[in-house]
Amino acid sequence: MNPKQHTPITDFDAKIDIIDHLNDDHQTELLAIAQAHGHADACAAKLLDIFVEGCYLAIDSSPNATETEVWIPFVLRGDLEEQILYLAYSAMVKQGKSLHHNQKQYFEVLGQTMVSPHMLRLYLKTSQPLPPNAPGFAWLFSLKVLNASPNGDSEKNSLIQRWFQRIFMHVLPHLSQQRREKIMFSMVKDMRYYTLRKVEYREDNEIAWVDIYLHGTTAGGEWAKSLQKGDIIHSTSEYTEATDHLHQGQTLLMADETSLPTVMALLENWHNPIPPILINVLQDEAEHAYINQIDVPAGTGLYYIDSNSAFLDQAIIDLIDSLPKIEAAWAALENTLAKKIRKHLRENHQLLGTKNRVKGYWTKR
Q1: Cα 352 vs. chain centroid, distance in angstroms?
Q2: How far apart are CA 349 and CA 210, in angstroms?
Q3: Which among 275, 247, 284, 290 has a CA at the least distance from the CA of 121?
């Protein structure tokens, strides 16, 4: 690698955040880039560094092989993460792969109930096995109600989808960044990730609990409230949070209402002999009723911060700085807030890479 040939990224914190995020959450996409750039036999890829003109990947062709460093030039101009993901999606389309990894799954709605003042629980049944004890597992749901398509229609739709994706990826580089962002937003505006809170075993059936926080009049909330027993819904992709770094040492968990289902699942399946510290960043303290539904690990430190606080980021930072030494963190908060907390943990508490998994789950608009 010869970085002197390329223009450095001036925002170092943003670069580190993107590298950590892509290496943690987008392994499939990075591997697709490697395979499309002369390394068809690649079995793993890692993002090493990013510059204005492109990025360096470390590529493994076999578990015991020496890593190969490869320079990948960017095609787009604009947002760094967007440029890398475009390389990935373009590679996947050329390889005939679905951008949603062909993970469509259908569910039958069995019912719903309010489990706290603002948390709605869906009870869902599916023909596919559910992942047991998988904190942070989520499906990308389409905000529709439908009947499952016959196989013939599914195959036809898949061909149409691949044809559309090829055209889309060809046109995208020629659009302005603002136009690209508008199109990308329109593609996902009727889709939401919702977390598997728990698997219930009922009369030899696996029932998925999917908990959805209702905050005002939103597309996702209105869809969830409208669902009735017998409705068929579907997801197009799935995702699992990486939480293996929480299995040892003093850990810090931080959650707002959107990530409480993941934290609840983590606490129910805690594998660390040292209890965690949990900071809840909530609009309504009444949502503690949701957390009180389980027995947290003995000795867990529980803190509450009002998310309406005028200086929310500083309130969280001050609390973190008053705690015992933190060795690993997992959090999911509003995007801008997450960036500030992640940076503080990296610079002031030396939590680097996979020890500092502080995610942005949503963005204020």
Answers
A1: 19
A2: 34
A3: 290
Judgement on whether residues 229 and 256 belong to the same structural domain of the protein: no
Same domain, residue pair 250 and 218: no
Domain tally, the chain: 3
- Give the integer Cα–Cα distance in Å for 152 and 150: 5
In angstroms and rounded to an integer, the radius of gyration of the C-alpha atoms of the chain is 21
In sequence order, what are the residues at sequence separation of 6 or more whose Cβ sits closer than 8 angstroms to the Cβ of residue 255? Answer: 262, 263, 278, 279, 280, 281, 331, 332, 333
Q: How far is CA 85 from CA 20, 42, 143, in A?
A: 14, 18, 24
Supply 96's token pair.
Answer: 């005939």
- Report helix, strand or coil for 286: helix
pLDDT digits (tens, 9 = 90+) for 282-314: 998 888 889 889 999 999 999 999 999 889 999
Q: Taking the chain, what is the end-to-end CA distance rounded to the nearest angstrom?
A: 40
pLDDT per residue as tens digits for the range 23-56: 888 888 889 888 888 888 889 899 999 998 999 9
Q: What CATH number should be reported for the domain holding residue 275? A: 3.40.50.80
Residue type at position 100: H
